[in-house]
Design brief:
The protein has 305 residues and is mainly alpha-helical. Helices cover 40% and strands 3% of the residues. Helix 1 crosses helix 4 and helix 6 crosses helix 10. The protein is globular and about 80 Å long.
Amino acid sequence: MKSRSAKPWIAAKLWMALCAAAWLLSLPAQAQERATAAERGEYLVQVAGGCRCHTDQKNNGAALAGRRSIKTPFGTLYGTNLTPAEKTGLGQWSEADFIRAMTEGLDPQGSHLFPVFPYPSFTRMARTDLQDIWAFLGTVTPVEQPNREHALWGPFGWRFPLGLWKRLFFTPGSFRPEPDRSPEWNRGAYLVRAVAHCAECHTPRNLMGGLKQDWAYAGSSDGPEGELAPNITPDEATGIGSWRELDLVWFFQTGFKPDGDDVQGLMSELIEYGYQFMRESDMKAIYAYLRSLPPISNRLVKKKE
């Protein structure tokens, strides 16, 4: 006769086999979820203009491998290596480190990041979107390329005053939809204020580098790389007040303005590697939000070198 004590052991082995089978069957689903997260993250990076400040286009640098120069009124900064390279990129960062940098402007050691990295805008992003971007960055080809030291003037190159700067000009916190606005408007507001960080280039700054909120999106003569950043408020004379929804969609898709002129400089890269891949519904949402802004007259003139 078989021992009664064998029955529980047989049941345990069957249970273990079933658990193992369930785990094996879940692996493809887990892999698919990771791939889907990376795909969502790639799309968000495209909405952010392809993060082109981290690619040295002029010197044929590898995608997101850093060392691109970014000219500002406070000196020259260099985009950092965002590839998962172990020594010089994000290979030793955790997801939590990445989210902290994006939302608090702190590196893994707790040092303040210079706000040319637009964490004052990225802080508004949803945590799930940040997790998706992190998943995408993990799929980028790693490139071991050391970051280049920034060349900032005087006190602007010191990190310890950045804590005070944050108290004055940085408000952490995720985007909150406005319930009295349409879903399209809220989507556009989220994309413009957070993901695409449009204010960082299209809003003039004060002497301390803080955004002049009264002139939000009215353009800047000291845009990235010393270029003009145009007025994107709906002012008829100096902004985009005469643009139709179709005009903005066409601009994002091709880089051509309503008057037939094509965009130049960094913006042309942002379109080529980012904005043109946006869903048309997101382009229209951005238009809906920009049209709702107060029009500001600001006729920009490029400053002499």
